[in-house]
Recover the amino acids of this structure.
């Protein structure tokens, strides 16, 4: 049985992965709030941005955390196609949940459906990402802890979407994002505690790419996307702010005319 280390670099990867999850959640929730106050094509665009932000944030969180994962007695590589597929699944399935909330007429039913879909998307991304692992040995899972991790993912997603429906202020969204980041991180490490590895020492070459060859550059790129998109959304005015600015301009022109 190989010894598993979930934080080979100390607190660096857990803290950084939590930050990625929280930033993705903050951006996703903020975009969802914008979407709910928009209509037509604008609503669809905001929801697409929300889905890509939450999906990217969760994926980046997972693989930044996996940079700190090691197993004694074997190297770890990653299947490139499965790793890419896990990212696409995260965005598409989370998108289904976000759109259910964005266009649902019955809020309770939309929240339940959206939370379930988004939570299963988070869990699917996690276990697809784990299926991408290539090492000398066999991986097994504790089914009880796997189920618990899925439950945490669904509850976290439902709570986050509830926040998007009911919380409008930026400060409240920030707090909700920190809570969701903690929940997503908890789901990840609960899923990782479910893992055991029976190492079979071998001198054979592992297929796939190492974390530093593939996962690290991709995570840095997606993390940069999250930061830049967050800055854009934070700096772009809301519909209410645009209306207030237009009203102030009209008042100024009216006063100048008199």
């Amino acid at each position: 049985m190989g010894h598993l280390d979930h934080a080979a670099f100390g607190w660096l990867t857990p803290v950084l992965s939590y930050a990625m999850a929280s930033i993705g959640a903050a951006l996703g929730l903020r975009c969802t709030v914008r979407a709910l106050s928009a209509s037509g094509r604008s609503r669809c665009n905001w929801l697409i941005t929300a889905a890509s932000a939450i999906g990217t944030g969760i994926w980046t969180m997972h693989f930044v955390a996996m940079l700190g994962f090691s197993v004694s007695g074997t190297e770890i590589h990653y299947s490139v196609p499965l790793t890419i597929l896990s990212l696409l699944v995260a965005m598409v399935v989370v998108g289904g949940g976000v759109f259910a909330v964005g266009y649902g007429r019955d809020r309770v039913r939309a929240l339940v459906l959206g939370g379930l879909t988004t939570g299963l998307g988070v869990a699917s991304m996690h276990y697809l990402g784990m299926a991408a692992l290539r090492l000398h040995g066999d991986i097994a899972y504790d089914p009880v802890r796997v189920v618990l991790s899925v439950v945490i993912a669904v509850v976290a997603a439902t709570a986050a979407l509830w926040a998007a429906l009911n919380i409008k202020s930026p400060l409240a969204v920030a707090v909700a994002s920190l809570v969701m980041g903690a929940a997503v991180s908890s789901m990840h490490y609960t899923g990782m505690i479910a893992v055991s590895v029976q190492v079979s020492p071998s001198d054979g070459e592992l297929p796939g790419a190492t974390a530093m060859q593939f996962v690290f550059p991709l995570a840095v790129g997606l993390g940069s996307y999250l930061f830049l998109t967050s800055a854009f959304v934070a700096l772009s005015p809301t519909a209410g702010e645009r209306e207030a600015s237009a009203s102030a301009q009209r008042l100024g022109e009216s006063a100048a005319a008199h």
Observations:
- Residues 4-257 form one domain.
- The first strand starts at residue 4 and ends at 5.
- The CA atoms of residues 118 and 190 lie 18 Å apart.
- Strands lie at 4-5, 70-71, 76-78, 133-135, 137-141, 195-199, 209-210.
